[in-house]
Amino acid sequence: RFFPSMKEDIFEFCIANAECMTLGVRKQSNGMGGYILNSRWQKNFWLLA
Question: According to the lineage, what is the superkingdom (predicted)?
């Protein structure tokens, strides 16, 4: 396998080629409510829950 030289590129490579689903969740910080979801396929998806 080819691994890029930059650390950020290595992390992106690992995320893009992972066999499992990984989901990052953080609370919206600007007072609007809801959550920001990040996954392999979607970046900064806002969820009002």
Answer: Eukaryota
